[in-house]
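User: I'm putting together notes for a lab meeting next week and I want to include a structural view of one of the chains we've been expressing. I don't have a solved structure, so I'd like a prediction I can at least talk through. The sequence is below, exactly as it appears in our construct file.
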Amino acid sequence: MIILRFLWLNYSNYQTGDISNGIPGIKHWLDTDRYTWGAEKLLIGKHLIGRQIQFIGYILVIAFTKLLGLPIGSVVIIQMGFAILSAFALYDIAIRISKSKIAGVTAMALYLCNPFIVSWHMYILTESLYTSFVILSLWCLIKSLHTKKLKDFAYSIPVLIMTMLIRPNGWILLPVWLILLISSLPKQSKWKFIFSGAVVITFVTSMATFTLFERSIQITTPVNNLQQGITVWGHEELNLDMPQDKFVDNFTWTDGIRYVLFHPGPSVKLASYRMGYTLIHIRPYHSTKYKLRVLSWVLPAYILSFIGLFAYRKDKKTLIAIAYILAHLFVIAVSYAEHDSRFDIYILPIFYLFAGLGAYKALKYIKSKLLTSL
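Assistant: Thanks for the context. Below is the predicted structure for the 374-residue chain, given as C-alpha cells.
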C-alpha cells in the first residue's frame, strides 16, 4: 500500500504537477541546465567547469542515460527506484534499532508518502537522488559497524563516494564516517579523541589547500554570505544585521573562521536562524495554507521523533543517525537555508526514522495502559 501510494503521488505529479510547480511532465528548475549540459560535455569529451564539478556524480547518471539513448524521463525512473530502495534501508535501520516492524513501516510510510519529498522525484535535480544516497550511506555505515565484516565495508565505500559526488553537501560525511569508525575501534578514549581531531584538522586543511576543493567552496561565497547576514538564499528581507569586518577577505573562505572567532555572538545567531528555517520547513513568505500543510507533516513527526530519540538515546545506531543530521545542519549553518526548502529534505527522512521509533514506543505505551485498565 505504501509503495502504491508513492507511485500514485508521482503519477499525479507527472500528470498535473499538483504537488510541485503546477506544470505536468518532467520538471526542470534553476540548476537543471547545469547538469544536462555537463552530461553532454562529458559525452563529447569536454571537461566540466565551475560548479558542474561539484555535482559530477549526478551528471554522470544523466550522461549514462544519454549514452544508452534513453529519454530524460529515465533519470526520474532511476530517482524513484532509489527512493524506494532507500525506503527499505530506512525500514531496516528502524528494525535494527527497535526490533519492531511497526517502527520500520511508519518510517517508510512517512518518507515515501510525504508530498513535499515526493515532489522532488520528478525534477532533474540532485535533491531526490542525494536524499536516497544519504539514507543508503547511513544504512551501510550502521550495518558495517554492526557486522564488522569486510564485505560490508567494501560496498559501503562506493555508496559513500557516490553520495559525496552527487552534491558537495555530502563532503562533510567523509570526516563523519572516519570519526565514527574511529569511535567504534577497541581503543582507549584518549586516542580516539586524538585521531578524531586529526581527521577534522586534515579535512579542513585539505579543503583550504587543494585548489579543487578551495574553489568549490569559495564559489558559494560563504564569507560574503556571513557578512551580509544571509539566512535564506534570495531573500534579503530575511537577512540579519552583521558586524562588518574590513580585515576579513570575502574571497578567502578560511577568513570566515577568523570572522566567527572575532564575532561569535552574531555568527551563532545567524547559524541558528539558518538551521531554524531549515528544520521548520516553512518561510515567512509562504502562504498560510502552505504553512499549515507543511506543519501538519512536520510537527507530529518531530514530536514522535523526540519520543524515539529519548527512548533509544543510548543506542549507537541512534547516535550515528544523529551525527548525519548534525553534519548536514552544520553545512547549512555555514552557508544558508534554501528558499525552496530543498536542503530540508536531506535530513527529514532521518527524522522520520526517529518518528517511526517514537510511534512504536507510543503505541506500546498506550497498549500497556489499556491492558492495565481492563
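A couple of points you could mention at the meeting. The two ends are 33 Å apart (CA to CA). DSSP finds 17 helices and no strands in the chain.

User: Perfect, that's what I needed.
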